[in-house]
């Protein structure tokens, strides 16, 4: 199946494409469980062009697009060093965002992107990879467990005005 999958680096030239897939996948993943107002507030603050440009220009953050049969299917954002949103392991790699468009789910794209993140982490000499996942995102939790992540903590995440709990999941790298 991976022969149908390709990876490309997302740059400032792709910012509109990045914003579009970011908003679509965020709303698809969390829209049904949150108010329209909270979703709009989050999207307007975290996924606006100014914020995405800042993230794209950060040398310790990297964005990648996954294309399935030539069509944009999902994306990955990883953070190293100071770009990490929290420091669970100063020598760790944070998987900050990993999202797949609904029509491309269950095609191995998530695994493809996690494997790419692990390759980045190993090449950078990172001791672990970690991410935060909403405690009510049961499908994602199961996926990360199957990929070798274990829960190592939790933190609060503000989606609009709603305080939610993200579980911190970590995968040690030998």
TrEMBL record:
It holds the Pfam family Acetyltransf_1. InterPro entries: Acyl_CoA_acyltransferase (IPR016181), GNAT_dom (IPR000182), YpeA/RimI_acetyltransf (IPR050680). It comes from the Eukaryota. Keywords: Acyltransferase, Transferase. Gene3D superfamilies: 3.40.630.30. Residues 5-174 form the N-acetyltransferase domain. PANTHER family: ACETYLTRANSFERASE, N-ACETYLTRANSFERASE DOMAIN-CONTAINING PROTEIN. This is Polyamine N-acetyltransferase. The lineage of its organism: Eukaryota, Metamonada, Preaxostyla, Oxymonadida, Blattamonas.
């Amino acid at each position: 199946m991976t022969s149908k999958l390709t990876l490309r680096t997302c740059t400032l030239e792709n910012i509109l494409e990045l914003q579009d897939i970011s908003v679509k996948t965020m709303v698809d993943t969390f829209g049904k469980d949150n108010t329209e107002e909270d979703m709009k507030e989050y999207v307007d603050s975290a996924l606006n062009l100014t914020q995405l440009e800042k993230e794209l220009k950060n040398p310790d953050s990297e964005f990648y697009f996954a294309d399935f049969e030539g069509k944009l299917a999902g994306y990955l954002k990883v953070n190293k060093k100071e770009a990490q949103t929290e420091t669970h392991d100063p020598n760790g790699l944070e998987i900050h965002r990993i999202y797949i468009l609904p029509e491309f789910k269950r095609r191995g794209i998530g695994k493809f992107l996690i494997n790419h993140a692990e390759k980045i982490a190993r090449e950078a000499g990172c001791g672990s990879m970690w991410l935060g996942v909403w405690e009510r995102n049961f499908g994602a939790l199961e996926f990360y467990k199957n990929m070798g992540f274990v829960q190592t903590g939790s933190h609060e995440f503000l989606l609009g005005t709603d305080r939610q709990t993200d579980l911190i999941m970590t995968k040690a790298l030998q």
